[in-house]
Structures are given as structure tokens and as C-alpha cells.
Amino acid sequence: MRESGTKGPARRLRAAAAAASALLALVAGCSDGGAREGAGPAPARSTAKPSAKPTPTWDRSPSSLVAVGDSITRGFDACEVLADCPQASWATGTHASVRSLAVRLFGAAGAASRSWNLAVTGSRMADLPRQTARAVEHRPELITVMTGANDACRSSVAQMTPVADFRRSFERALKEVRTELPRTQVYVASVPDLKRLWSLGRGNPLGKQVWGLGICPSMLGDADAADAAAVARREAVRERVVAYNGVLAEVCGRDARCRYDGGAVFDYAFTGAQLSQWDFFHPGVNGQNQLAALAHQRITAPD
Questions:
Q1: 185 bridge partner residues
Q2: Which tens digit of pLDDT belongs to each residue from 149-182?
Q3: CA–CA separation, 93 vs 98, rounded Å?
Q4: 26-30, 47-51, 111-115: least confidently modelled range
Q5: pTM
Q6: Quick one: how far is CA 69 from the chain centroid?
Q7: Quick one: signal sequence residues (predicted)?
Q8: First CA to last CA across the chain, in angstroms?
Q9: How far apart are CA 118 and CA 70, in angstroms?
Q10: Residues pairing with 67 in the sheet
Q11: Using an 8 Å Cβ cutoff, are 95 and 45 in contact?
Q12: CA-CA 20 to 30 A from 43: which of 51, 97, 117, 198?
């Protein structure tokens, strides 16, 4: 009987211990570290690296440039009367007071070795494809274009370049660049407001004498005339310039590597101090400096 009494409490102790072990196991299973009913497996950590930012289409720091265009880019009348002065060019000049686009982009030494001025005084848009054909031979990273004033500056309104012809020539020039140099960038400056320049310079007697030598007759001819015909003539020239700028904006806008200046040159209100002291129509050194600043601002602007 005594032996039987001893086994009874032992069995009960073993049963209690087993129950306690089961309870501990249940508590451990319900803790944060255990699996919950209905919960799926822990999500796997992503090992994918974040995607790199896409490279911008427009390079804000090109390493070489070619300038094409007309007398403005040649610095005509900036240094002496009726003569080119390429050292004062807004695009590639070395004149310290101009701080040309090339100098701003590459420094003085870089501008001398990595920029070329192929502009031609008197050229019109029809000449641009030949200029760009020469430009691509240098394989520049940037080509600057400023042309179109001579298309409006003709002997008469009737002689101005038709807008359709202007468009075809510009499209050909841009196609020449894109075919030969797919990644080369193009900066296109708007045609200046010739009527504003007439209004600013007509008060200068010396300037009007030089105008009489044949500078932009469609706008500057009979500079003091105020009759209806003269007013209509000047307005027709201005309207044609606006149409030319519309073409530049549209055609350039179709090319991801072309930047139009947004009308910055056309809208800029030149002062007398910024015009040539000889013809009071072309930009002088100060005016060339401003053209360089406008171009640099647009070329280095973020996308």
C-alpha cells in the first residue's frame, strides 16, 4: 500500500511538468519570433540597386564649338568701320571686354584652340547649309547659329527671302549636322528686332550716313521718313523677322539636341552704348558681350 501511495504523487508531478512544458511551447509559438496563424513567409529583402538617373540629352558643358552665321558673328563694325572684327565676336572672340561664349565655356586658352568662326558677313539663310557642311569637318560638340537678318535686310521688301525658302534652307542645314554628327548640339539665336535698332540709331547723324552706304536698306533706308509707305515698309520687315523666328523655333524644337534662344536676342533692348560707334546698327563690343551672355545662359541652363 505504501508503495502504491508513492507512485500516485509521482505520476501527478510528471503530468504537471508535461503540461507546463506544453504551455511554455505554446507561449513561445505566439511570441513575435514565432509564426502567426494565417501569416505568410517573411518578405525577402530586395537586392536590386536603384536605377541610375538617365543622362540628360543636352550637355551643358560642351568642349568645342563652331560658329556659323552672318556679320554679327563676325563682329562687323565692332572695332573699325565697315570691317570684320572676329576677335570681338560674341561666339568665339578673344577680346577681354567681350568674354565670348567660347571663353566662358572653355577659358581663354581653350577658346583659342577649340573654337572656330566660319560665319560670313552678308550671308543669308540660303548660305547656312554650306557653312554647316564646313562646320562638321571640325567635329565640334556645339554649333552656334545666328543668321537671318540679311534675309530681311534687302534692297526692298519685295526682295526679302520668302518664309518657305527660309524654312527649307534651315531644315537642310540642320539635317546636314544631324546626318554627319548625330550627337552634336546646336544653339540657335533669334534674329534681332531690326525695327528697334532703327529706332535707336536714327538719332545719330554719323550712323545715318553709314546707313546710306547700303546697310539694311529695307529697314534703314530713308531713316527719317514718316509717311505711310515708310511706316508700312518698316512694319513689313519686322513682321518678316517675326516669321523667321517662328521658323527657327519650330524647326529647332523638333530636334532634341537643338536649343532656340526663346526669342532672347529679338526681345533684348539694346542701348546706344551697345551698338557700333560707326554704324549704330551692328552690336559693338558691349553689345557682343551681351549676346555672349544670352547664349551662355541658354546653353548652360538645365533641361
A1: 142
A2: 999 999 999 999 999 999 999 999 999 999 999 9
A3: 7
A4: 26-30
A5: 0.81
A6: 17
A7: 1-30
A8: 100
A9: 9
A10: 117, 144
A11: no
A12: 51
